[in-house]
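[Discussion] Sanity-checking designs against the backbone

I'm trying to build intuition for which residues belong where. Below is a structure token string of 169 positions. I'd appreciate it if someone posts a full sequence so I can compare it with mine line by line.
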């Protein structure tokens, strides 16, 4: 009977270890975005569907780690607006790139809603940051929207830049 009790304790400790340790090996990440220019529209709604980051020490598809896959809708009409677009966790380590996937865009111009054609839906932004145990890293992205009205409709060009991240306790 004693051997069974020892085995049960070992199994219980292994399960507790597997439940408690993995979250401790992750660091918090907060991604914020700010618009740097104004656009000529009443509103410019952009839906961000996914945000991920690329580890510096890995390559290929395994290097990309998801920060958030929850859709976030932003109104990019006001310059210098700043909004949190993702809160998540990443495995501890150095990251070098953030990928933003835009799933939809709508403009309201002169009170009329118009579907917007996006020049690109996937944006990879070079920005270096480190996730550490016990800290939350803030990654700031700046976006410059450019709306063009043509006979075929409205086209949107987005340009992203990354600001070096900082960590807070």
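Best answer:
Here's mine. Compare freely.
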């Amino acid at each position: 009977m004693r051997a069974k009790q020892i085995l049960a304790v070992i199994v219980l400790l292994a399960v507790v270890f597997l439940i408690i340790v993995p979250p401790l090996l992750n660091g918090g990440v907060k991604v914020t975005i700010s618009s740097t220019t104004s656009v000529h529209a009443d509103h410019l709604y952009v839906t961000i569907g996914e945000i991920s980051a690329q580890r510096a020490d890995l390559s290929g598809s395994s290097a990309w780690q998801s920060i958030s896959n929850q859709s976030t809708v932003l109104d990019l009409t006001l310059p210098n607006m700043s909004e949190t677009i993702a809160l998540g966790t990443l495995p501890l380590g150095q990251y070098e790139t953030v990928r933003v996937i835009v799933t939809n865009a709508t403009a309201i111009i002169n009170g009329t809603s118009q579907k917007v054609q996006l020049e690109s839906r996937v944006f990879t932004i070079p920005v270096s940051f480190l996730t550490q145990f016990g800290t939350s890293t803030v990654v700031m992205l700046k976006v410059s929207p450019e709306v063009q009205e043509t006979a075929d409709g409205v086209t949107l060009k987005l340009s992203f830049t990354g600001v070096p991240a900082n960590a807070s306790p």
